[in-house]
Amino acid sequence: MLVYFTQVTVLFPVLPLYVMQRWQGTGVGFVVGAMAAGLLLFRPLIGWLIDRYGRKPVLWLGLGLMGVVLPLYVWSPTPAWLMGARVLHGISQAAFATASQTLLVDIVPRPRRMAALGYLAMSNTIGFSLGPMLGAIAFARVGFGPVVALMAGLTLLGFLLTLPLPWKTTVKPIHKPDTQPDTRPVPQPDNEIEPKAPFPWKVILQFPVRDATLLFFMGSFLHGAVVTFLPLLVPHAALFYSLNALVAVLVRFGLGRWGHRVSSRWVVSLGIFCAGIGLIGLAIAPSFLVLWSVVYGFGFGSLFPVLSSIVSFAVPLAVRGRVYSVFLAGFDGGMTLGGAGVQPLSQIFPLSVLFIALGSMGCSVSGLAFRQFSRSLKAR
C-alpha cells in the first residue's frame, strides 16, 4: 500500500502542469477528475471479482492495469485520450486498494484487526506525503517522461512485494451430484463462497455497515472540500497539508498500538467532530493554522481505520469484497462531491461561510454517530 500510493500520488502536482504545457490547459479539470469515474463506477464490479476469483488475482489486476495505463500518459494525442487513461487508472486503484484491504482483513486475527488496519491507513498516508514531493522534484528537474518511468519502477516494486502474499482460493466449485442430494443443511465453511450469491444488500443496508459507510462518506466530503478549496481560503495551505498528514500518521500508529482499548463509539464521533471543528476554525481564525491542522488531522486520520474495522467485524468472508467495495466507494463519492459538488456554491457564497457550514455539518453528524454506535459492535 505504501509503494502503490506513493506511485499514484506522484502525479498530483505534475498532471495539471503537464496538461497546461501540452494542450495549453484544455480540459485540466476533466482530465484530473476522470480518475474518480473509474473509482466510483467500477468499485461494485471489483468487489464481485474479489469474492468470485480471490483477493490476489484482483490485486494483480490493479497492478497489471497500471502497466497499460502508464504508456498512455505519454502517448495520448488528445486530452480525451488522457481522460480514458485516467479512468483506467481509477479502475486500477479501485482493484488494488479494495483487494489489499480485504486480504489484510482475511489474514489478520480478529484481536489485531484494528491495529493492522491502522498501520495500513498509516502507510497510505505516508504514501500520500511522499508521492507529491517525489513527483514535483522529478518533473522540475527531468520532465514528464522520467516521472512516468518512476511510476513504472514503483509499480514493478509493488508487484514484487505481492509475490509472498498468500494465494487464497475463495470460490467453492459446484458439482452436480449423481444421486439425490441430502436436503439437510450443511454448514458453509468460512473460507468458501457461493459464486452465484446475490449482492449483499441486506448486509450493506443494515447497521453497522450502513452507518459506517455514511459516516465515511461524510468525512470524505469534508476532506474533499479541504483539498479543493483550502488554498483559496488561507495562505500556506501546504503547511496545513503536511501537518495534517503527519498528525494522521501518528494517530493511525496510535490506533494500531492501542486502538483495541478505546471504544469505537468515542473514536468515530470525536473524529468527525474534530474534522468539523478544524473547518470552522480555519474560517474563523486562519492565523491559528497549525492548531487547526492538528485538530483536523486527528479527526480525519482516526475515521478510516476504526470504521473499516467495524465493517470487517460485521461482514462474513463470503461477501467481504463486495461490501468493502461499497464502503470504499463512500470515500470516492465524498471526495468527488466535496470538490465538484461544492464548486457551484463557491460561486455564490464566500469560502469562509462554506467552511463554517461544512464544519457545522460535521459537528452535527458527530452527535448522530455517537448515538448510532452506542449499539453493540461485537464481532459477528
Give the % helix: over 70%
Q: What's the level 1 CATH class of the largest domain?
A: Mainly Alpha
Distance between the termini: 27 Å
Tally of alpha and pi helices? 15
Major β-sheet profile: none
SSE order, as H and E?
HHHHHHHHHHHHHHH
Which descriptor suits the 3D outline?
globular
Architecture of the largest domain, according to CATH? Up-down Bundle
Relevant CATH superfamily of the largest domain? MFS general substrate transporter like domains
Total domain count: 2
| CATH domain fold name of the largest domain | Growth Hormone, Chain: A
What's the alpha carbon Rg, rounded to whole Å? 21 Å
* Average residue-wise pLDDT: 82
**Uncertain parts:** 169-195
Task: Kindly state the number of beta strands.
Answer: 0
Helix vs. strand class: mainly alpha
Describe the secondary-structure layout:
Elements: H1 2-9, H2 15-23, H3 28-53, H4 55-75, H5 79-107, H6 113-142, H7 144-162, H8 201-204, H9 209-233, H10 237-258, H11 264-284, H12 289-314, H13 320-341, H14 343-346, H15 351-372
Helix pairs in contact: 1-6, 1-7, 2-3, 3-4, 3-5, 3-13, 4-5, 4-7, 5-13, 6-7, 6-10, 6-12, 9-11, 9-12, 9-13, 9-15, 10-12, 11-12, 11-15
Structure description:
This protein is mainly α and 380 residues long. The protein has helices at 2-9, 15-23, 28-53, 55-75, 79-107, 113-142, 144-162, 201-204, 209-233, 237-258, 264-284, 289-314, 320-341, 343-346, 351-372. α6 (113-142) runs antiparallel to α7 and α9 runs antiparallel to α12. The protein is globular and about 55 Å long.
